[in-house]
Amino acid sequence: MATTPMTYSPSQGAERRQKQQQMRRMSQELDWKRSDGRSFHQCRPACLQTGATNAASGSAYAEFGATKVIVSVFGPRESKKAMMYSDIGRLNCNVSFTTFATPIRGQGSDNKEYSAMLHKALEGAVILESFPKTTVDVFALVLESGGGDLPVIISCASLALADAGIMMYDLVSSVSVSCFGKNIVIDPTAEEEACQDGSLMIACMPARNEVTQLTLTGQWSTAKTNEAMELCMDACSKLASIMRSCLKKSANLSS
């Protein structure tokens, strides 16, 4: 007895793998096109806003393409630990994801690795001596993960610290690039990050020309590393200008 043929579709996981394989093949070509139409060296439009939450000492919201992040800063407030160990302030950082931040539902949780990296990127910019024996808490929440999450978190957190009136040597802006064969693309999307050959991220204080954090994955030649760093530093400088404009606009509205 013959059965009626039935159509079927691969699972979402299989579809995702097929899409990544297709993109990996495309990315090896010198003239491939990015899915959002950007050029290789063009960042996503940045939407920044301070005062995102009323309950915090300072806060900021950042939207870079599909990536959406909100950061709240509390303090300085009394810290028993700070009194026990030193006369300088303490900076605590926590990064978490909502349960709907990624395509896989229910994956929202605290990210210890990102929390540690956020702390590393910010601690060199914050003047800890300005709030002795107290603690400043930075809580970053990723509302939607659309690629380049950590750089957006770092930049947004720096803006929130400034909004809270925390003394800093300079704002910290952060940008990442992905490597695809001979190609380097800046400010990658989640789709691009899923099939990259390597990545480089820089967090820096542009006005002081100081790098607070640099992470590198994959195999990079010296020439390609230098090119990627120059791209990131230039983009960080331009992003910092947008961040300063956001702070000035906020100050003018409140005055």
From TrEMBL:
BP terms from Gene Ontology: nuclear mRNA surveillance; poly(A)-dependent snoRNA 3'-end processing; rRNA catabolic process; rRNA processing; seed germination; U4 snRNA 3'-end processing
InterPro entries linked: ExoRNase_PH_dom1 (IPR001247), ExoRNase_PH_dom2 (IPR015847), ExoRNase_PH_dom2_sf (IPR036345), PNPase/RNase_PH_dom_sf (IPR027408), Ribosomal_Su5_D2-typ_SF (IPR020568), RNase_PH (IPR050080)
A GO term, aspect molecular function: 3'-5' exonuclease activity
Region annotation (Disordered) ranges: 1-28
Chain segments annotated as coiled-coil in the UniProt record: none
Keyword terms: Cytoplasm, Exosome, Nucleus, RNA-binding, rRNA processing
Main location: cytoplasm
Name of the featured protein: Exosome complex component Rrp41
Taxonomic source organism: Ananas comosus
